[in-house]
Amino acid sequence: MPAPFDTLRPCPVCGSSGERVRLHRQRFYEGVLGDGYDVVVCQKCGAGFADGIPIQEELDHYYSERSKYSYDGAGGAESPYDLGRFEAIVEQVAPYLHSADARILDVGCATGGLLSVFKRHGFKNVLGVDPSPACAAAGLRVHNVRIRSATLEQLAAWTERFDLVLLVGVLEHLRDVRPAIETVATRLSPGGFFYAAVPDVEFLAEARNAPFQQFSMEHVNFFSVQSLKRQLRGSGFTCRQTWQTMIEWREGVTEPTLGGIFEKSTEGNGAFDSEGAGVDTITTMALSRYVAVSLAADAGIFSRIHALAESREPILVWGAGALTRRLLTSTPLADCNILAFVDSNTHFHELGLAGRPVLRPSAARLHAGRILICSVAFECEIVRKIRGELGLKNDLITLA
Predict the structure, then answer these.
(1) Residue 90 in contact with residue 260, Cβ under 8 Å?
(2) What is the DSSP string of 24-66?
(3) In sequence order, which residues have a C-beta less than 8 Å from that of residue 69 and are 6 or more positions away?
(4) What is the pLDDT of residues 345-389, one digit of tens each?
(5) H or E element: which one contains 327?
(6) d(CA 172, CA 256)
(7) The pTM is what?
């Protein structure tokens, strides 16, 4: 029986269990990845990944039972920013689909927003798969999209074939990447295509977001163009085209995205190729630059939180996710006089955090103290909710 946490994870790209260089230790107060992980670079192939993380079964359970991608706070609907991103993906892959009857499978589809955009563009045969039953229910309710609740391991037992399989924002979440890609390969029809999209490690330092936000409680792989191509080549895929784009992920927040479309090679049997793609020359420098930029931005956040801890004034903390859990370990946030946390993610409400309750947003009306907004990505949305929907007059403290 494997240990729940593996402290020497094989490189997800080349499979090596050998030497790796640690660039950063990312710490959290609790969470699916425990108290944190090491951000490392494989010395054999140059790929970046998180070391010391749970086995895949633990991650599958988390995404099945506690997924935040059911968008409970928005009734299961994606944001306009997500839908704009989905439009761009359809535009990228549509030239590779020669019929509106193409069979399309979106793996890790959340509530099916991307598939709903394919439907609007005339593609009829769309199907989603996601480990969360809540996502499957929301997809049917919100988008009238069929979604089956299943893990990648369960997907491997399917018999259907598809002309296009998509993994958008999925590969960076997986411990066992190669088995997932090989499962995708078995689901493709002859001549079918695989589309993947991941955060682009090359431009993390240029994005506008909270410091260290890409080292989240869920991201465990950090892909460059070179490492993504090598990853897919290792499973017998040929790259047809890649796209590198800085997208507006939320209001005032950007994220570098790397997308690529791949075709199953007709040469050989897709055996794992650990040699043929060369060493990744991008990732070490890109991750080092991102760490430096994040550390500099953290200094200002530390100063603001230190002042709150010194004052001992009672506060609400809005946000119980990755940023808050990181700040509880890396700043004096745990020493602040926190009355409670507030979060729209219903999975947090029963668990509490750092000995305090996690409240629904509506419960914030019961507190008159200042509110510290521990989110950069959703700061504008949270402010609108507090001032508009809830009508609260509490003084607000932001981290930006």
Answers:
(1) no
(2) EEEE-SSSTTTTEEEEEEETTT--EEEESEE-HHHHHHHHHHS
(3) 63, 110, 111, 130, 132, 135
(4) 888 888 899 999 999 999 999 999 999 999 998 999 999 999 999
(5) helix 322-330
(6) 13
(7) 0.90
